[in-house]
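Contributing new records

If you add data, match the layout below exactly. Sequence lines come first and carry their own label; structure lines follow with theirs. Keep one chain per record. Anything else will be rejected by the validation script.
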Amino acid sequence: MSAKSSEQKAIEKQMKENQRMERDNARRERASGIVNAAKYIGDFRVMDPDAEKILEIALEQYNGNDSNFVTVSDDAVPKHLSNSLPLEAEKLLIYGMLSRYMIYAKSVMLTLSNLGKTYFKDKKKAIEGENIKMTENKMPMLLISHATTDKNYAEHLVTLFENIGLDQTQMICSSVPGYGIPLNKRVYEWLANKFTDWDLDLYVIFVLSDGYYSSPASLNEMGAAWVTKKEYTSILLPGFDFSQIRGAISADQIAIKLDSDEEELRQRLNELKDDLTEKFGLTKIVDVRWERFRSTFIDAVKEIQVEKENSRVRKNQPSFSVTIEGINKRLPGVSEILNSDFTGGTRYRNLQISIEIVNGKVARNLIVFDKLLTVILKPGEKCRMAVAYEDSEDVIKWPSKVKKILHSEYEDTKGLPNWFNICYQDEEGHNMVQSLKLQSFDGEAYYDLDGHPWEA
């Protein structure tokens, strides 16, 4: 084969140069298209993931030399990028991360710019700034997440928050009219939208109790708050302890316990008021007014506690059944003295009753009409007594058989007391009273419970 002429060599050289320029132009055009499509965080341009990866590797290998020079070889990058190092270098140049680059065999020699060296720090600042900006532009909204069994506590929380300046446009509480789910809305879908609405900065108050953890709806709200990383404050209802906190919220986060030391409770409520005032941009409430609202709330919580305890005690009481055994009948153990013609029998004036417990409870030191009937009355047992008014001969003839009562203390209907009390100690040692009232049905008299048992 004859040697190539100088002219042929020149032509081939020019062809190779043209091909190289075409490759460079194609690479530059492709890189420009990717860079031009980059997203921005504010004024900060975010590079595509592949370019970021190459820059990250370059920064890891950069030794801090004054020339800002670093070499990246194809075996130092992920496999899917090993064949596109020139393209990634071109993108980095257009992004402004490099001042220049050179392609050498299977490596690229990069000269980092100052922007390239601080890119990731600058990106973090841009993201943080954007998050702050987004938060500032969001409308704050308060959700009181509670079980329906605890609605009375939720109602008083709403009143407290109203008093510091929140209204129905800033607060959600499903148990309080005007703050609940709008008509015809699907409950779970409506609430889910509140958790995911980017225009809302949702803040959650968890009202924790045994009832809360027994409520699927409440636990759904807790889970949604955790998934969407919402800020929250936990309020522990009386009787619920920190050790019982579980699920998606942290037991280590400082919370408000409504039956804690009152000084601590006042301080925690102060902190909550300050947080909400700042978060919602509310006008600061005058201290003397706030202290009055706070005291009203604390008193309301105490009243709920007292009523709950009273209700619990009432439910644990014996159920008495009072039977009228006889009206104006001969007293048990008493003999009548008759004339020889069988006339002249005694005319009795008394009321004879029996009392028993019909619900499995026990009563101690049972007192009726100021008389101790028994030190303990168990289910299935009966205790009996007879009573008569002071103008009945029965109380004179048989004082050991009949208990005297006074018209001035016990008003009567046809000689029967209109009411009387059963006093006793329940199984927990509470001194309790149940009032019985005279009733009539089809002409038959009987005694029935009048109201609830109450503590003496």
